[in-house]
Amino acid sequence: MSHGLLAATAAGIALAFGTLSWSAAAQTTTAQSAPAKATGPIRIGVLTDLSGSLADLSGSGSVEAVKMAVEDFGASVLGRPVEVLSADHQNKADIGVQIAADWYDNKNVEVVIDLPNSAVMLAIQELTRRKNKIVFGTAGGSSDFTGKSCSPNGVHWVYDTYALAAGTGRTMVKQGGDSWYFITLDYSFGLSLERDTAAFVTGAGGKVLGSARHPLNSADFSSYLLQAQASGAKVIGLANAGGDLINTVKQAAEFGITKQGQKLAGLLMFLSDIHALGLETAQGLVLTESFYWDQNEETRAFSKRFFERTGRMPTMVQAGDYGAITHYLKAVKAAGTIEAPTVMKTMRDTPINDFMTKNGRIREDGRVLRDMYLFEVKTPADSKGKWDYYKQLGVIAAADAARPLAESDCPLVRKSADAGKP
Question: pTM here?
Answer without folding.
Answer: 0.87
